[in-house]
Each structure stands twice: as structure tokens, then as C-alpha cells.
Hints:
This protein is an alpha/beta fold.
Amino acid sequence: MGSTSVTEMLGGWERGARALALLDAARERGYLTFLSEPRTAEEVAEFAGYSAGEVLDALVAQGIAVRVDGKYQLEGQLAGALSAGAPVDFAAQIERAALLARQVGDVVRTGASAVTAGESVVIARSVALTPNDAARGVVTQILDAVPEMRDAITDGHLLDVGSGVGGFVLTTASLLPGLRATSLELVPEVAAVAVERAKALGVTDRVDIRAMDARDFEALTPYDAVFWAQPFFPEQTRAATLAMIRRSLRPGGILLIQQLDAEPTDDDARAAFTLPRLVARAQGLPFARTLDELVAEIEAAGFALVRTLDIDLGRIALLRRPEESREG
């Protein structure tokens, strides 16, 4: 603890917990949407159904909102992150942060942290691209960095394993009209969100979204490329999932993965890092495995490394199924 007293430490923890509770409640109650435009205190009170002066003071004090010319609105960066044009669902990220706080408590109390279907939707939304122009820019960066992927799927077949709400596959389908894809997602409620997004984008004729265990998938024809959302696959499922991916790829077909989390080097960041790691490990997930470790795991399943890349979005690896008969 150094020179910081126990009382000061508790105060810091308490302030952080209260601020997150305020932000998540504001999200849940609709304040973050309502304050996307400047509002008077009277307008906020009418929206809330009660005198909201103290709530507004708290939102301003915590940097969630600002008061300009007698009106209240979201702080600028937060407003941008919550806008419809943002590449990710920041509201879901707020909800997931509150969920993680509850999960930490579950693990400490019971040693486990079960996830409901509704919570799975929150998690999936929080990490997925929202198919829009900004997200298409993100996917374009990935395809520019990995031209083999673009070449394979421009008029080819993509298998998206652990698709979540379809952020990558649906955004990519909206970019590449010749793409045909199959999306595999374990949780039906999560897959249902992906289906609704596909309908909104008009790509249901090209993206087949299936709610199923990826280990049980049998490809009728080989795929040209696979994107595997590996961070969300528990240890006991990974070997069988990789075997399925290998069976599903054509000889020479490619597999793209991303290292989603990395252990920080900064002491303060490392301390915070222990909490999501606590939850992930309790759920059997391989949290923050290094890219070298991931590559070794996949190579052991019969793939050959093409290369690893460091891009603005993080570390990724491109691997290939060796050129051989599909039965090999």
C-alpha cells in the first residue's frame, strides 16, 4: 500500500464503484440517449418523472455530462462513443463493465461465474463491430493488412466460428458482395441478434447464421477461409473446434485469429487486469494467452503459420491448412 492509507484506498474503490453504478444506471434509465441533445433541467425532469437536479449534478461532477448555457448534454467524447456511427456498441461496453463487477463477486463467493443468455448478448454486443461505415473502415484495415484473406473471400466462402452478434462477418459481407459465409454461434439468443442485423443489412441470402456448437458443424463443401473468435472458447472445447476448422477448410485455406487481451506491463494496469482474468479463468477461458502461445496451439492442430502482424487493432496471426488431401 506504500504511503496510501487503508481509508484512502477504500475511498478510491468506493468512488470508482459509485461512478460505474451512476453511469450504468444512466444507461439503463435512458439518460445517455436523452442527453445526446442539449436539455434544460425542466426537460430532464419531465423525461425522468422526478426532479433530477441532483442526478444532473452527479453526472456533471463525474464527467458524464456537461452544462453549457443552462442546458445539459453528454460530454463530447462519450457522446461520440455512444453515437449510431461508432464502430462498437459503447452502451453494451458500459453494461458489460457493470456485469464484470458482479461476476468478480460471484467468483469470490462461489469460485464460479455462470453467464445467462441475456448476459451473453451483452458480452457479444460489447466486443462486436456494429455494421456501419466506421466498422467497414475497421474491416478494410484488416483486409488491407491481410490481403490473402481478402483474396480468399472476395468471391469465396468464409466460416465465422464463434460469431457472436456477427460483427465481423456481417460487416465484411456488407463490404464484399461476392462473399458467402456461414456463422456459428453457440447461444441462440446471441445468434438471434445476428439474424436481425443480417436482415437489416439485406445479406441473409449470403450469410447463413446457425445457433449450434461449433464442434458439431460438418461442412458440405470446403471453405476458403475461417475467422475464429478464439478468446471465447473454453479450454475443453478448443481441440475439437480446431479439428472442425481443419476439416472445413480446403487445402491451402487460411485461418485468421486475433489476440484480444494482453497482460499489461504497467503496474496499475496489471492490477486492474487481474479482475477480468479472475472471471475468465473461472469460466475456463484462456484469457490473455500470448499470440505465440495461440500459434503453437493451432500449429499442433495441423496448421502452418504464414505470419503474425501487429496492426492498429492489435496482434493477429494468419495460418494455413497445408496443401494436402482433405482426408490428410
